[in-house]
Design a protein that fits this description.
By secondary structure, the protein is mainly α. It has helices at 3-16, 58-61, 73-84, 97-106, 112-115; strands spanning 89-90, 93-94. A two-stranded antiparallel ribbon has the order 1-2. Helix 3 runs antiparallel to helix 4.
């Protein structure tokens, strides 16, 4: 998967997720017991996921996941950071699209999918 493919999948994931993936202590997780995933967690195939990833930054997890080998680790880290900020979440899902669009533009990616998600 390349940067554009990863970005598109993360945007699609944000558009469908109604709330952050958090654990029982309200800490963001790659995957939680309810089956919810953060933006980077959504890119990790089931067979490559490990609960040992929890608590690690995206920059530290990416080298451990073959599917993310061609994705810029800083892009993943910035998207994870945008996801983790509670101010980007409303009552009915993600509302930090302007931040995601800025991240995409910073990496020279097509951000058209962000524009179709109103804030």
């Amino acid at each position: 998967m390349n940067n554009q493919q990863a970005f598109d999948r993360m945007v699609e994931h944000l558009a469908t997720q109604q709330q952050q993936a958090v654990d029982s202590e309200e800490v963001c997780t790659y995957r939680n017991e309810r089956g919810e995933m953060c933006v980077v967690g959504a890119l990790i195939p089931d067979e490559e996921y490990s609960s040992t990833f929890e608590g690690l930054s995206a920059t530290n997890v990416a080298p451990l996941v073959e599917a993310l080998s061609d994705v810029n680790h800083s892009l993943l880290n910035e998207m994870q950071s945008a996801y983790d900020q509670s101010l980007h979440w409303g009552r009915v899902g993600f509302c930090g699209w302007h931040v995601v669009q800025n991240i995409g533009e910073k990496y020279g990616l097509d951000t058209g999918k962000c524009l179709s998600n109103p804030e």
